[in-house]
Design a protein that fits this description.
rod-shaped; 337 residues; 20% strand; Rossmann fold; six-stranded mixed beta sheet; alpha/beta
Length: 337
């Protein structure tokens, strides 16, 4: 679609007419003219030459002589260039993401405990987390998602991205114990904060921390991680998964269920960063936790459209320059006759 960026520029087309009618013609110039007895003879010679300039002919005084029409056209072309003719393409929708969400997940060996269930069958904590977290990712609309996995050490497995399918593929492939047997929550949060900082400036940056233990390894303490999160304006939602650290029944008999969740520490992290702490002791409660987070941080679906714009002001401008050059060339040829 063609349009003009500055259509008001066309008002300048009336300027020559306003000047023509509003400004009176100069008087008394004939008093300084040279009187010669052969003026009529010179005019006849000029008319016979066929020059469009009109020289001394009466046509030169006309408002619509060929030369003046050409000058008017040049003026109109310059004004058209100032109005900036443009071609505007069809609107194209672009991503309008509202949040960066980084999932920080504990994959220490304790996540292998089979105290969750899917479809009535007992599964490990990690298996339940994979399914529920995958469903959460699917619901996040135009948000960008990333993934940090941690045990003894923390690893950025998926940087912040729109490619949710790739994040889910990495999520489903993770195995308990692949990052070590300990739980370095502080290091994981520190790595997550650095990743969010590198991802760019957004109004909303969120971390969802999921663990079944307490911070017992790493170089970054929880207070240090919380301080960094507060300075960066990052909200942290914390999820404690699994039992309370008591014994549980397995196929081979009784086994110890680990040291339990550090609920006090997770609550403090959430409170200090304006997030929320959740407790998930089974699959159903874990699903409710992610649903609650989804409601607390609704994704924004505002559409943003962009249009390609091509400028064509140079076309009338080049035409004006070409016509002006043509008139100059004709004038020189007329002068040489």
């Amino acid at each position: 679609m063609m349009q003009f960026a500055c259509p008001l520029a066309f008002a300048a087309l009336l300027l020559p007419l306003i000047v023509w009618y509003a400004v009176p013609a100069a008087k008394g110039l004939h008093g300084d003219a040279l009187r010669v007895p052969f003026l009529r003879d010179l005019a006849k010679i000029n008319l016979k030459s066929g020059s469009i300039w009109g020289g001394l002919s009466a046509d030169n005084a006309k408002l619509f002589s060929p030369v003046r029409l050409a000058v008017y056209l040049i003026y109109a072309l310059v004004i058209t260039a100032l109005a900036r003719p443009q071609w505007v393409g069809e609107p194209v929708r672009v991503h309008n993401f509202s949040r960066d969400i980084l999932l920080v997940m504990d994959i220490s060996t304790s996540m292998e405990e089979p105290d969750f269930a899917l479809n009535g069958r007992p599964v490990s904590r990690l298996s339940a987390v994979k399914k529920v977290a995958g469903e959460f990712i699917d619901k996040r609309g135009e948000d960008r998602i990333g993934l940090v996995l941690f045990g003894t050490r923390a690893y950025l497995q998926a940087p912040i991205t729109f490619d949710k399918a790739a994040v889910k593929q990495i999520l489903y492939a993770m195995q308990a114990g692949m990052a070590g047997n300990s739980t370095a929550i502080g290091d994981a949060l520190g790595l997550a904060l650095k990743s969010l900082k590198d991802s760019g400036n957004l109004d909303k940056k969120i971390i969802i921390l999921l663990t079944d233990g307490e911070n017992n390894d790493g170089s970054v303490t929880l207070p240090q991680a919380v301080k960094l999160a507060k300075e960066a304006g990052v909200k942290i939602y914390t999820i404690g998964v699994g039992g309370d650290g008591s014994d549980f029944a397995s196929f081979f008999g009784l086994r110890m269920g680990g040291g339990g969740v550090d609920e006090a520490g997770l609550r403090q992290i959430a409170r200090d960063t304006e997030g929320t702490y959740f407790r998930a002791k089974n699959t159903a409660s874990l699903q409710k936790v992610y649903a609650a987070i989804d409601e607390l941080e609704p994704t924004k679906n505002e559409d943003t459209f962009v249009q390609e714009v091509r400028e064509f002001y140079y076309i009338p401008l080049l035409a004006a320059l070409a016509l002006a050059a043509f008139l100059v060339l004709l004038k020189r040829r007329a002068d040489n006759v």
